[in-house]
Amino acid sequence: MNNDSSKPAASASDRAFALNQALEERGLIPEGYVETFTEVMENDFDPANGARVVARAWVDPEFHALLLRDGTAACDLFGYTGVQGEYIVALENTPTLQNVIVCTLCSCTAWPVLGLPPDWYKSFEYRARVVRESRTVLREMGLDLPPEVEIRVWDTTAETRYMVLPFRPAGTEGWTEEQLASIVTKDVLIGIARPEVQPSSQPPR
Question: Which domains, and CATH codes, for the chain?
Answer without folding.
Answer: 43-190 (3.90.330.10)
